[in-house]
Design goal:
About 50% of the residues lie in helices and about 15% in strands. It has helices at about 5-15, 25-35, 50-60, 75-85, 95-105, 115-125, 135-150, 165-170, 180-185, 185-190, 195-214; strands at about 15-20, 40-45, 65-70, 90, 110, 115, 130-135, 155-160, 180. The strands form two sheets. A six-stranded parallel beta sheet has the order 5-4-3-2-1-9, with helices on both faces. Helix 2 links the parallel strand 1 and strand 2. The longest helix has 19 residues, at about 195-214.
Length: about 210
Amino acid sequence: MAQTNPLERVLQTGVVAVLRAPDGKKLLDVAQALLAGGVDVIEVTFTVPAAHRVLEEVAGRLGDRILLGAGSVLDSETARIALLSGAEFIVSPTVHLDVIRLCRRYGKLVMPGAMTPTEVLTAWEAGADIVKVFPSEVTGPKHLKAIHGPMPQIRLMPTGGVNLDTAADFLRAGACALGVGGALVSTKRIAEGNLAEIESVARQFVEIVKKERD
């Protein structure tokens, strides 16, 4: 998939794995397990200590075999560091216009977080490629469907509350992709080095996306 552009790659894969951990020591191994399971779009959050170094390591080892991004980006300074460290896309929990502008300036994919219809439209009009509907564990698929109805042109990606039981519902509600954190790469699985389980669950998410699209 290296020949596709970043947006197409996210849409094709349909799953963005969100890596959040108390340290980054095992995240390269986790990224490799995700790739083996068919999830090749991976976000390293800036809540991970020295996240920029994790980005550099993963980018250096896996290259364009994955699409690597940075999450929990709260300002344009952090976004710039992430891009210089190898991130190809930026994810934020909020609508931060300076972050969106910086990504537009450098031609990088950007996915700001929004919850209300006004926030979603503001993010889209500011140049978001995909709007992350967050926190979706609070609002659920019905909320996403309600937003998608009057604004079907906006690409929506729920994050939070997406698991093997809810993934299909979010896709049917209009999600263009799924942001999946703890249900796929829980801190427990990461700490235990349970790479086989991470790979297995990744395959299950990919299969759900394929089934719903077919």
